[in-house]
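Notes on consecutive records. When two proteins share a document, each keeps its own sequence and its own token line. Never mix them. Below: protein one.
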Amino acid sequence: MPTGIYDRKKAKLNKGLFKKGHRINKGVEKSEEHRKNLSIALKGRKSWAKGKHFSKEHRHNISISCIGRPSAFRGKHHSRISKEKLRQSHLGKKTSEETRKKLSLIHTGFRHSEKSKLMMSINQLGDKGHYWKGGKTNHSDGYIYINSPFHPHKGKDNYIFEHRLVMEKIIGRYLTKSEVVHHINGIKIDNRKENLMLCKNNIEHRKLHKKINHSFP
């Protein structure tokens, strides 16, 4: 063998460097320029796994090897350009009947454990939920609701009337279930301190409304 092609001394030094599961680029952060160059270089190339089918045993081994490893995409987000590219690539595409059948067979008979259900519900609480709007919402009855999961008089959905919370801050205690907060100007969303009046019960609140109605011809 000609000299200079294969250095045996270097080979001895590098012995044991490439072990099973070793990642040469682990912890190395690539620059934006380097990433762009990689994407340009790989553009048009077919995926090495395209058209290949792994055996059940091989899939099982892959799943075992990935246990405990954090996802490569964890904590990362697609850019707007990337999202648009993904959207464009899926336009006009429809899932075949064969794929639909396969998906339905995968999920038939599958049930989440009670622990799994609890973890999913915890992960969707408050600002973690998909439909989170800052914890403030306008209800169909015209009042404003505030998310208060630790309030003793919270509803099933952890929400409570904003005007009741404002009144509780004014008087320095929790309101009883019988107590009613009245809006002086009649505007339900106007929850200023000056516009709120506390009534002992619903009877007192109705009497107050009758007086207001009689005062106007």
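Protein two starts on the next line and is unrelated to protein one.
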Amino acid sequence: MTLEQNKALIRRFYEEVWNKGNLDVAEAVFAADYVRHDLRPGNPPAGPEGQKRIAADFRAAFPDLQMTIDLMVAEEVVRMPAHEFELFRASPAWPARVAAAHTLPRELRAHEQYRFKAERFKGLNTPTLLLAGGDSPDFFKAAIATVNAALPKSRVVVLPGQQHIAMDTAPELFVREVVAFLGETS
């Protein structure tokens, strides 16, 4: 399923099941063995039946409830091209990332509150390899440059044609650079 098809499916689920109460649409959206990975209370069954029960319970408690999708976390937030996102979804790490998705709001809050203070790192004399994707967005490139300037024994290696997840999209390139760095520092 493509990223756009996935997004359309999510929109359909919220519009039909949550907003209109067409609970049977959950049958077309969820696999029979689907398991929730969020922290809502209760113990609904796996698959579409569990999603139907959750929606029915909420709609009974809040009959005027209307769900609106303001933002879908995909390329808009992750800033990852669709082809990279598809590779990432096919990687062995994907299920763990999905299971940890509930931590994203906390991580985004921490990111917004963190202030980088270069002087805190001036005494860090550990050799440090900073890998940057050659096709990374400018904000990643700027961040790498800032960290590189703050670390006395760092160096930057640019991975051509890559973005933020080269360890998944170009593992051979990633490993080659890390092994070369480790060979220099041992």
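For the record: Strands lie at 128-133, 154-159.
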